[in-house]
Every structure is written in C-alpha cells, then in structure tokens.
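User: Some background: our group keeps a shared notebook of sequences we're curious about, and every so often someone picks one and asks for a predicted structure to add to the entry. Today it's my turn. The entry only has the sequence so far, pasted here. Could you supply the structure so I can complete it?
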Amino acid sequence: MSTLIVDAITDTTGNKSPYIKNNVLQVKSSILTTHFTFTTTSFADITGLTVDITPSSSNSKILVTAHLGAVAGGGAHAQIFGFARDSTVIGQSTASVTTAGGIGRYTGGSGDASNFESMSFQVLDSPSTTNQITYKLQGKTTGSTTYIGRWGSDSSQFGFSSSITVMEVAG
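Assistant: Of course. Here's the predicted structure to add to the notebook entry:
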C-alpha cells in the first residue's frame, strides 16, 4: 500500500482547491430560533429560512435540506412546505392535485393546535449557474394558522429551532 502526502494540490488553472467530482465544495446554513406564524394559502417565504450560495461550477449540484423543529396548526387544515431557488419552486409534487408541495402534514380537528411535530426534507437541485442563488423554505396552509417553532395552543410553553442548509456537490 502506498501513501501520498502533499502540502497542496493545484489544478491546471492554478486554483488551489481542485474540483473533484462528488466532493462537497461548500456548505451554507441559516437557523431560525424564533417563532414564525402564517395564514397564507399560497406559498410565501418563511422569514429566516433563506440562504445564499454561489456555485463554483455550472455542473455542480446543490443539496438543499430543511428541518422544522415544530409545526402546528389549528382546525382541520393542511400545512404544506416546499423549496424555491430564487423565484423557481423546486422539488414540488407534479401530481394533478389542487394543493401540491414538497412535504406536508394535516391537522384533523378543532383541538389539534395542541399537537406539533418536527419535519425534515431535502432536494438535490441542478441550478446550472455560477451566479449567486438564494434557496428558501416556503409554506402555505389550506386554512387557519400555521405555527413554526412552537406549540399552537401556547406560544410561551415550547420553543424549537428550524434550519435550512445547502451543500454544493461537485458534478
């Protein structure tokens, strides 16, 4: 067995960080540590869950991951979430339905604001650009109020953080 030990690797253009396929090139993240509430029935940005990244190559892929520490809603309604790259929705269901998203949950009764659950999901995107792009988590509801990072029944009882992370993967 051989071992290669070097002080630095430089590619043919003089870049000291060679582009190696399937390696993670950079990671960016944003965390929401406060409560967020919305009532919109069309996708809207969740303030605090956006992150900017400038891909190193147009061949790169971006792995977008989100974790919602707690999601609660009142009444018999759905809470639906998805990702957007700038103004383009990504990873959303293409099924022919009245309400589509990337991930969701349904609250099934009048007292269900007392229930909450965490949610996580991810999408592998191919933005095909080296310009700065903004990834954001968006949410909507089919009615009533959606609560993020808290219990729907009492905002002073629980507090949970949520996050969005993007990783550039060399293509």
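Suggested note for the entry: The mean pLDDT is 85. The chain has no helices and eleven strands.
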